[in-house]
């Protein structure tokens, strides 16, 4: 079985330096790089199965975005925003493509990872060749955002892994149908034991601060900035939508098809926010677009 290499890269914020951990799959000398970036409280381990499936073509790089998993924490939690994440990804890509001529970088972003990809792909001279946006767009349902913000900020502690895993499963039912083994991994990837032996979610509770400080005016400005970024994207783009998603509406997906990179749209039935790409039919969608 193909196994990942664990690596770290040092990144910088206005508050100082921090580390970003990442998994790397496939041939270490492969100039074709696929960066896979997870959702707001998830980790790079989410892409283990997708990475194994695509490692025959790519060197697949799956970071834990700062504040999550094995990566460091920011000294100023208000910096847990897209501009900081984009800066970190530029550093990661520079590391991943160093000393490799004709490097090619494609991007697969789930939810928050898609927003990071949109922002990066909108910049002049950006390195993104192909872009997959998994259940995310510039207009986000306000009720869904409130739900996510409330979930992030709950400093919950569980007496056992089984109790914690049950909670993760309950809040992740919109991912769709999964096997018991898949649910176990989806929970294990984002849980760890604290010093008191209790099970907690593996991210910085400070992630909730930017959500809590948002106002209607800042939300409106953020949406306008995201649409402007989206309209500046020029690379081939695939938009994936969970057919039952409460975060990316059908109306927003249709608007995205009519402007910007005019993406190909695929809807996955019986799934909400967001498709996990743990199943062969979903992996085949990514492979067809990215590799052909």
Can you tell me about this structure?
With 292 residues, this protein is α/β, with parallel strands linked by helices. The protein has a domain at 5-141 and 224-290: Alpha/Beta hydrolase fold, catalytic domain (Rossmann fold). It has ten helices and ten strands. The chain has helices spanning 48-54, 82-97, 112-121, 142-152, 161-171, 180-188, 208-212, 216-231, 250-257, 280-290, and strands at residues 5-13, 16-25, 32-37, 59-63, 104-110, 128-134, 191-193, 199-201, 237-242, 264-268. The strands form two sheets. An eight-stranded mixed beta sheet has the order 1-2-4-3-5-6-9-10, sandwiched between helices. Helix 9 (250-257) links the parallel strand 9 (237-242) and strand 10 (264-268). It is globular. The mean pLDDT is 95.
Q: β content, as a range?
A: 15-25%
Largest sheet: 8 strands, mixed
Poorly predicted tracts of residues: none
Q: Choose one word for the global shape.
A: globular
Look at the structure and name the CATH superfamily of the domain at 5-141 and 224-290: Alpha/Beta hydrolase fold, catalytic domain
Count of DSSP E strands?
10
Gyration radius from CA atoms, angstroms:
18 Å
Give the SSE string. EEEHEHEHEHHHEEHHEHEH
- Level-2 CATH architecture of the domain at 5-141 and 224-290: 3-Layer(aba) Sandwich
At the first level of CATH, what is the class of the domain at 5-141 and 224-290?
Alpha Beta
Computed structural class: alpha/beta
What is the helix content?
Answer: 25-40%
Q: Alpha-carbon distance between the termini?
A: 24 Å
Query: How many DSSP helices?
Result: 10
Mean pLDDT figure: 95
> If strands are numbered along the chain, what order do they take across the biggest sheet?
1-2-4-3-5-6-9-10
CATH topology of the domain at 5-141 and 224-290: Rossmann fold
């Amino acid at each position: 079985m193909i196994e990942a290499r664990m690596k770290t890269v040092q990144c910088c914020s206005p508050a100082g330096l921090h580390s970003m951990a990442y998994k790397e799959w496939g041939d270490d000398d492969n100039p074709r790089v696929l960066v896979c970036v997870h959702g707001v409280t998830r980790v790079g381990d989410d892409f283990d199965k997708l990475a194994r499936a695509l490692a025959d073509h790519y060197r697949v790089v799956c970071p834990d975005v700062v504040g999550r998993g094995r990566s460091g924490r920011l000294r100023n939690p208000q910096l847990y925003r897209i501009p900081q994440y984009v800066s970190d990804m530029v550093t990661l890509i520079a590391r991943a493509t160093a000393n490799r001529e004709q490097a090619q970088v494609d991007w697969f972003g789930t939810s928050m990872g898609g927003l990071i990809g949109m922002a990066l792909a909108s910049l002049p001279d950006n390195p993104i060749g192909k872009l997959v946006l998994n259940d995310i767009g510039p207009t986000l349902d306000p009720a869904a955002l409130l739900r996510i913000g409330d979930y992030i900020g709950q400093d919950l502690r569980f007496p056992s892994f089984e109790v914690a895993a049950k909670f993760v499963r309950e809040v992740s039912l919109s991912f769709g149908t999964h096997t018991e083994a898949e649910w176990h991994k989806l929970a294990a990837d984002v849980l760890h034991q604290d010093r008191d032996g209790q099970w907690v979610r593996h991210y910085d509770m400070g992630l909730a601060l930017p959500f809590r400080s948002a106002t209607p005016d800042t939300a409106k400005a953020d949406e306008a900035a995201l649409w402007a970024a989206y309209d500046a994207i020029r690379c081939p783009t695939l938009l994936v939508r969970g057919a039952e998603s409460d975060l990316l509406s059908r109306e927003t997906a249709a608007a995205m098809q009519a402007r910007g990179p005019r993406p190909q749209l695929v809807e996955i039935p019986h799934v909400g926010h967001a498709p996990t790409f743990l199943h062969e039919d979903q992996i085949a969608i990514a492979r067809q677009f990215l590799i052909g």
